Request: fold
Amino acid sequence: MAVLSVEMIMGVVGNIVILLAKFKCRDQFLCTCWLPLVSLSLSDLGSSLLIISGSLFAVVTGNQSSPWCEIVSLLKFAFITSSIGSLAILCVQRTMRVASTGSCLSVVMAAACLASWVTGVVIGSVPVVYDWIRYDPAEMLCAVFWESSYSDMLVYILCAFSVCIFLPFLLIVFCSTLTSAGWGWNCSSDLSSVTPLLVAFYMFCYTPFFISELVLLGRRDLSPAPDWLRTMSSMMAYLDCGLNPLIFCTNQEFRQAVLGLLWTNGRSPTEPVLTAVVKLEL
Reply:
């Protein structure tokens, strides 16, 4: 409970501050690829508000009831897909030198960003429709449980991974390789300069989740991955939502904008200001 509480606070507070800075202080820092970065922050905020809080409540009560159980499962797929999709689009924009506004390609990037959200919702709705959702105490939320057909499980996981994970992952690797070789934008002052850190920590935090799904594929008796691995996969995925705001602040100009926003909001509107000095005769 303590770890979940810290991760939820970090994710909610951090991403709200980041989104406010991106909109209210957008003239104070350079951000040519703002659309996928905003999409990533929205995904992290939604995951912190709905998924992590749902897991925390499930730990307290020991269960998740319907229909919240099905909603959490669907949203989890949507947030995972939108996160890696936003990172893939961010890498593509940096490599192709495409800004988020001002060109026809920017419309394509916006459509791709929206498609990552829609794809996650569609993929996440399949287990809900076929009633494959059960509460998993190890994952601390409702997850997909396979009880009858190995072939159904194999087809679903392969399709979901191919569309939602493998394709964006290939784009990230390919574009990151080109960028490191000198292609595309490589401006340290632009907020997109944090992309390598965002990608590295995403892969690190979601590795236990990918491993647990691969373990499931290798078990023809449909038994899930070990409890400790499923618990770690949830905790590490939640951690990524709280780390991303800290990664954004590694950019100096953006960090100064965030500090300016917090300082301005923290000042009292009734704070007295010295405007004149009058000499009194006693």
Observations:
- The first strand starts at residue 133 and ends at 136.
- Residues 150-180 form the longest helix (31 residues).
- DSSP finds eight helices and two strands in the chain.
- The helical segments are 2-24, 34-61, 68-96, 104-129, 150-180, 195-217, 227-248, 252-266.
